């Protein structure tokens, strides 16, 4: 595959971000937050301990909860002599609070249990309901959508048709073929077929335990004003405990271990990070380079049987408490190995689509080569393309894989910089790059 299109968000065309969600209504009472009153007392005490003196306005901004909710919590804490007012301004919001000595002692105990002192979480049941409401299985991808996203790319039409249908199925797909055939690149391009904004919580609460979900390295936030109203909009100011984002695409590679698919508890901070497939909810989760992980492929695949069948997953807290979360992702498995060598027939049946990506035809390979030449500022030559095909690929029986043009032409570019010259396509330059790239037998 080659990218001949202009740069659009890192070179990736995207379908219009039609909003399918908007921020839920701002909670006006403690009950509407879905959180336990004493849980909020603990959270406020920890923030006061960390921040020292803080105004009601800043506390509201920190927690993403309105002052009307926090005033009730602070009134209780004052009654219990856990905090005190240090300054009053001209308006109700201009009030500063700090912990008393008793409050600091209580906060130390809270911090020993959990050091989380960030944005207020949302309850688990609210998270599950919103994931269900914005399910990825509701996407409708057409042939026109696929051709728009892959415009300028060299991909076999049959593969594009399989990908489009697979996206509509909402089921897992299996990309397989030799290394360098473009599987990872294709999986990454699927991002462009995801439409609609989704809500991602900063964190969720399971009992008194906190699980962080929003990850700025994986989730792309959208300004709420840029999104159209959706079915989750209740017509009032939004609950900023949620972040409006594009549908996520999360990729795990050879580093993936079974333990990474469970909650990640940090012993130093004493709260959790959500596993990658939870962060990918309402989007795509790519398991790249399957079979290269330290864990046996069959063990890894067995971990997915229940989620793929039932669209839910079971997670456990360190206390042993087990709970259900939605598994609303299109899973993409990508491998260089033969599927039959990785998993059994029973598991393969659970995969909706098995898509093979192999060597390119001469015409496809030349088109990829031409696109990379244009990107690198080299004049394309049919003569030297023929030289590469006849004298190297054919003579040495090397398949025409999608990765080779960029890898070979990158060497021409490297040598040109070294020699202080413009990169130029010649037979000699191609010969040198070829022999540098491939190991001589």
Explain how this protein is built.
- Helix content is about 40%, strand content about 15%.
- It contains 18 helices and 17 strands.
- It has helices spanning about 30-35, 35-50, 55-65, 65-80, 100-115, 125-135, 145-150, 155-170, 185-190, 275-280, 295-300, 305-310, 340, 345-350, 360-375, 380-395, 405-420, 425-435, and strands at about 55, 85-90, 95-100, 120-125, 175, 195-200, 205, 210, 240-245, 250, 265, 270-275, 285, 310-315, 320-325, 330-335, 355.
- It starts with about 30 loop residues before the first helix and ends with a helix.
- Helix 7 (about 145-150) crosses helix 8 and helix 16 runs parallel beside helix 18 (about 425-435).
- The strands form five sheets. Strands 4-7-8-12-11 form a five-stranded mixed β-sheet.
- The model is unreliable at about 1-10 and about 225-235 (pLDDT under 50).
- It is elongated, with a radius of gyration of 27 Å.
- It folds into three domains: about 35-120, Orthogonal Bundle (Arc Repressor Mutant, subunit A), CATH 1.10.10; about 125-355, P-loop containing nucleotide triphosphate hydrolases (Rossmann fold, 3-Layer(aba) Sandwich); about 360-435, Helicase, Ruva Protein, domain 3 (Orthogonal Bundle).
- It is of the alpha/beta class and about 450 residues long.
- The longest helix has 15 residues, at about 35-50.
């Amino acid at each position: 595959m080659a990218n001949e299109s202009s740069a659009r968000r890192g070179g990736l065309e995207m379908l219009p971000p039609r909003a399918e969600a908007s921020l839920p209504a701002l909670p006006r009472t403690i009950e509407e937050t879905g959180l336990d009153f004493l849980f909020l007392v603990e959270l406020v005490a920890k923030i006061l301990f960390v921040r020292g003196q803080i105004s009601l306005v800043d506390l509201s901004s920190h927690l993403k909860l309105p002052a009307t909710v926090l005033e009730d919590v602070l009134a209780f804490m004052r009654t219990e002599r856990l905090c005190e007012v240090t300054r009053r301004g001209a308006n109700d919001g201009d009030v500063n609070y700090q912990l008393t000595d008793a409050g600091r002692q209580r906060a130390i105990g809270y911090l020993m249990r959990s050091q989380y002192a960030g944005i207020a979480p949302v309850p688990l049941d609210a998270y599950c309901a919103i994931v269900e409401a914005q399910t990825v299985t509701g996407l409708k991808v057409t042939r026109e959508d696929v051709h728009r996203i892959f415009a300028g790319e060299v991909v076999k039409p049959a593969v594009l048709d399989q990908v489009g249908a697979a996206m509509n199925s909402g089921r897992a797909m299996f990309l397989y073929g030799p290394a360098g055939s473009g599987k990872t690149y294709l999986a990454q391009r699927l991002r462009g077929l995801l439409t609609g904004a989704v809500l991602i919580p900063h964190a969720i609460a399971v009992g008194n335990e906190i699980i962080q979900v929003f990850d700025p390295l994986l989730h792309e936030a959208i300004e709420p004003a840029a999104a159209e109203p959706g079915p989750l909009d209740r017509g009032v100011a939004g609950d900023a405990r949620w972040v409006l984002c594009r549908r996520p695409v999360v990729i795990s590679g050879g580093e993936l271990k079974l333990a990474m698919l469970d909650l990640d508890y940090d012993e130093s901070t004493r709260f959790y990070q959500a596993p990658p497939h939870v962060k990918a909810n309402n989007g795509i989760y790519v398991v790249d380079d399957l079979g290269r992980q330290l864990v046996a492929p069959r063990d890894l695949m067995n971990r997915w049987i229940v989620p793929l069948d039932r669209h839910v997953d079971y997670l456990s807290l360190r206390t042993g408490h087990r709970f259900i979360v939605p598994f609303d992702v299109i899973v993409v498995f990508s491998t260089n190995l033969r599927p039959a060598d990785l998993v059994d027939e029973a598991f393969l049946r659970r995969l909706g689509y098995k898509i093979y990506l192999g060597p390119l035809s001469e015409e496809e390979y030349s088109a990829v080569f031409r696109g990379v030449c244009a990107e690198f500022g080299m004049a394309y030559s049919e003569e030297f393309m023929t030289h590469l095909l006849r004298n190297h690929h054919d003579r040495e029986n090397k398949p025409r894989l999608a990765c080779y043009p960029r890898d070979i032409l990158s060497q021409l570019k490297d040598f040109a910089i070294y020699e202080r010259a413009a990169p130029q396509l010649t037979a000699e330059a191609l010969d040198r790059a070829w022999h540098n790239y491939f190991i001589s037998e």
